[in-house]
Amino acid sequence: MQPLGSGHRAGMDAMLLAATVPDGASGVLADLGSGAGAAGLAAATRLPGLGVVLVERAPAMADCARRSLALVENAHLAARAEVIEADVALSGNQRRSAGLADHAFDYVIMNPPFNSGRDRQTPDPLKAQAHAMDSEDLFERWLRTAGAILKPAGQVSVIARPESVSDILNALGRRFGAVEITPVCPRHGTDAIRILVTAIKGSRARLCFRDRIVVHAGPGNEFSDQMIALANGRSAWPRRRSPGAPK
């Protein structure tokens, strides 16, 4: 369920983010800035042993997530998913009171509003809230929350624009290691329009760049076989390496 005629529309980004949760994953996942819940619910659909908490601050989008879980077609997910209406950037007791406890999650995925606040914004306020940063330290605040709520050796995944890579790496800081960065390119021979970043809480392993994901097979809008498999939950995009020893 998504708002009619307004708000962010879930698409490729959400499905790629869901694909970073590896096959066979279990435990509990937090989808931070979940919107209508597409990424978290996609992960839950593929992984029957995974519980999901959808965290969204916009009441209209959180309501869409609740309505999605109430659909008869999603009855098999309802017992494993819940919606928390809260700002991801909350910290300390405010965050814990909102339902995001310390060291409670095995996985965190996030699709922050990564467009610059200086960019031209849509007149739709609900969409603008989902697309544009509201502060220069957005990644620091969101990854601080991820570091607090993840268990030791838990995995965080972020999708963003390539120009945000330095901000993401700075925010990961000493909280996370074993960083893996995957460029996402529209077609062969084109520059990346997104990056997928995964990291492990407390790991000491080094950063690596992975082979790219190519979205379209040719000059038209037809998806590549790789993208079709990822978008439809037929395959995952698991990490290449062992997470390394925790600190």
From TrEMBL:
Methyltransferase small domain segment(s): 15-180
SUPFAM superfamilies: S-adenosyl-L-methionine-dependent methyltransferases (SSF53335)
A Pfam family assignment: MTS
GO molecular function: methyltransferase activity
Alphabetically ordered keywords of this record: Methyltransferase, S-adenosyl-L-methionine, Transferase
InterPro entries recorded: DNA_methylase_N6_adenine_CS, SAM-dependent_MTases_sf, Small_mtfrase_dom, tRNA_Adenine-N(6)_MTase
Biological processes per GO annotation: methylation
Protein name: Methyltransferase
UniProt organism field: Hoeflea ulvae
